[in-house]
Amino acid sequence: VAVDCSLLAAYFHWREEAVEYFGSWITILVSVVSIGIALVSTLASDGSKIVVEKDWIVVIAGGDDDKLASMNSIFRTIDLVCHTVSPVIAGALFTYTNYVTAAIAIGAWNMFSVFIEYFLLVSIYKQFSGLAKKIVPQTGTPDASGGIRDKITGSYQGWVYYFSHKVRFAGLGLACLYMTVLGFDNITWAYSIMQCVSESVLGILVAVSALVGIVGSLAFPPLRKLLGAERTGMVGMGALVMSLSLCVVSVWLPGSPFDPWLVEHNDMTEVIEDGSGIIEEAEGIPEDSCSSRTVDITSVSVLLSGIILARFGLWVADLSVTQIMQENVEERKRGVIGGVQNSLNSGLDLLKFGLVLIMPNQHMFGILIVLSFSFICLGATSLTTYACKEGKVDCCRRSKSDYSQANTTEPQEVPV
What we know:
By secondary structure, the protein is mainly α.
């Protein structure tokens, strides 16, 4: 991140000189390199997250599933708070300073925070001796130091192992939640702006949705203690489906631009954010189309209300599946299962962006809403299937969790 910020700070500072000396292609080159570095950063971050949240936390909990649930809740709450505060700070930097100052500030913070993170990780590692006791498989796993063929084989075996493991339906249920436009990401943000919702209002709604998500993460431990992880996940999925039903209804409410048969001709040649270094060209676009007409915000209001309410069920379901995997995956396979799960999540997230590329216009957004809701329902069905297979649905009283030393030891090897 620090290298990426340094590159962008240098580009924005000497942009005019660079374009004059190298030509306009330097802008494309900087963009490509910046995205490449960001991808490496994301990959490293995901790897670290898998280790800490899928493996270390189980060892630290020491076999206490109640403690594990509380730690998962705390992790998620911290994550949500950071995801709420960081855009606010970044927005303030971009608003009240320039791109160079913002890039330097973000890069400097990452350089400073890496030392804090390293110190904390080392302290935790030394405090809990169980983290140093790693079970090394003797056979059946290709050598990590082998060639590309061994790595590909190991990756393939990891996918086969995932789909033969009993937690696969719970994991697939979680992965389905990533194929959705029903969240406060850049897609829904852009659609809301096109429906004349101001950025300041969207910022407030993002903060409210984060608070609802925090309530969901804090509610998880007592719900899990009362119902068990499997049935708590079903409750979360049920709340998620009911909340997002409002989004489906919004497609046909007054003010909705949904019209799949409309052929829209876009007269806009190219509109790029000011400050990017690319000339803006636009013809035939009203300067303020929202102020020049009466806007019915009924549809978008119901849509955003459903998204906000869904944060509660989303994080309850997310934490439930996370705990299910932590409790039921043996130690030496946690990294494998966690890696495959992360790949599935990213794959369905990529599918979402692919569908947006195919249907980019606002009058097609209703189709994306319906598809997203269908995948959410599919995820709920998958998690319910797992709960049924584990015999957790018809129980009148929560059975004691199987999270124990016996449950996290290696089961009979599955041929892969």
